[in-house]
Amino acid sequence: MSDSLGPKAHIPSDIVRKKYNFSDLINVEELQNLVEVNYAATGMPSGIIGVDTGEIYAGAGWQRICTHFHRAHPKTNALCIKSDTFILNKIQAGEPHAYKCANGLWDIGVPIFCFDQHIATYFLGQFFYDDEPVDLEFFSKQADQYSFDKKEYLDAVRSVPRFKREKVQEILRHNIAMSKFLSNLASRNMERQMELEHRKRTEIELVKLQNYLSNIINSMPSAIIGVDPAGNVTQWNNRAEQLTGIPQQKAINAEIETLLPSLSGIMQSITRAIETREKQFDLKRRFHSDGKTHHEDITVYPLIANGVEGAVIRIDDITERVNLEQMMIQSEKMMSIGGLAAGMAHEINNPLAAILGYTHNIRRRIFGSLNKNEVVAEECGISLDNIRQYIENRDILKMLDGIQESGERAATIINNMLSFSRKSEKKYGRYNLEQLLDDTLELLVIDYDFKKRYDFGKIKIIREYTADTPAVYCEGNEIKQVFLNLLKNASEAMADKHYSHASPCIILRVKQDDDMVLVEVEDNGPGMDETTMKRVLDPFFTTKPTGKGTGLGLSVSYFIINDQHNGTMTVDSAQGKWTRFSIRLPIITTEEL
Per DSSP, which regions of 551-590 are E strands? Predict the structure, then answer.
């Protein structure tokens, strides 16, 4: 292609691979006006025809000899097509070409390019040069050969315009300039069109990428919340919706602390993260929701790349992990105390047995009706009655009672300690936990010693038992002992709380929880702080005054459930409001633990 025709712009690779329709790049209606004006000014017939389709995009001054004769007859039309093809082949290199067709008329073809692709041809003609005589004999034979009306055909020949060669060159220069203009315009329009297509593809890819990233973010088990430096929400994934119950539409653009009051103070972490370019942490954050204690880790990541400012808040619900860690820690403690308890219990049992035995013998030898007591007293010249009176007056008998009571209490502690270190033969069976709970309540009502300290009858008992809860395979007496410990613990805790509007209440729940049966013992007592809640299942830990509790009741209960029955026992509490112990025992189909 010469310098006079066709642009020399860089051809994008995606453009080269595509064929173009001239009418997609040029406004053919306006082009038709230009061709008509050009014909009116020059008298030169012309037309713009597509290379691949042969479609006529614009034309003016078409001669009757073409439209009514040569193009209308199949044989002469074949000659026209042959001429067109010859010219097309000649102008591929970019130069215009003049050719006298087999039908005896002159045509000139000027190529129109889009980049380096030949998309249309600007034809001039048909015409005669005025310095060439018109061979009427040739056209007369043509009329005879193709059965044209000779008079009309020759009249059409005589009406074909004649031009001086200089004039044709002048018109050709104009048409070359017009072809260059159309080539440049087509190339620019094509470039714009490809830019638009590229932009559309880019937008589609961006949407796909955005959807892909959104799917990744929404698939994460963590709540992901994006915020700008002012704390306005910019991103809110599915997990955030699940944890908060707030839909994305409502969350976007809302102020984070207004949207989630539970994150009060988070703006300080956001500001600090942005300023320091460092992550901020709030780990194992504790809060209450739906009557339960939850734990979560909050991490604030600064956004610092590509000039974007803001932060990403990641919230992980670690409640199950924390509970599992606490259970593992508790299990480790129980294992440790088990070994210690075995050694201590055996070492203490022997002197304790001696203390209790000697105390019993002292009573027998002073207050018993043994004959030898009288005999020895007479031998010593002492009245046994006077000795007894002295002992009573000096409260020695109360001291003996104290020794006996303390010894028996120590023996109970030792037996509890030994339960950590051995599994004795138990009598397991299938039990309904609702029935075991009700049996335990009856024991508390008739427990005289417990009634002396706490009026259990004044406590409101609410039973929330789910029908058709499966039975579990367990050691009934041990489970009742666990329930007894929990109910006593609740009663004692509620006795320390002053109720102004409510009254002491225990809620008992039994229901199936997947492959476990869940039992909850919940009271509306004073509750526990986090420190107490973490230690309440520890052996020997108690909040009662000295001498009022052994600190083993709950830890033994934990051991019975977790170690002896392959279950779980957890505690949850809101200080000043309530405490809930949850026990889960497995539902099994065989009589094996």
Answer: 568-574, 578-586
Using left for φ > 0, alpha for ψ between -120 and 50, and beta otherwise, residue 118 falls in beta
Asked if the model's pLDDT at residue 590 lies above 60, the reply is: no
pLDDT digits (tens, 9 = 90+) for 423-467: 445 677 889 999 999 888 877 765 544 555 566 677 889 999 999
CA–CA distance from 455 to each of 460, 495, 525 (Å)?
11, 9, 15
Cβ count near 130 (within 10 Å)? 14
Dig out the tokens for 10 from the structure: 């860089």
Cα 5 from Cα 97, distance rounded (Å): 13
* CATH class of the domain comprising 427-593: alpha beta
Distance CA 442, CA 446 (A): 7
Q: What's the fold here for domain 220-317?
A: Beta-Lactamase (3.30.450)
pTM of the full predicted structure? 0.47
CATH fold of 320-422: Helix Hairpins (1.10.287)
Residues in contact with 165: Cβ distance below 8 Å, sequence separation at least 6, in sequence order:
129, 131
- The values of phi and psi at residue 575, to 5°, are -60, 130
Find out whether 235 and 225 touch, Cβ atoms under 8 Å. yes
Q: What is the CATH number of domain 13-196?
A: 3.30.450
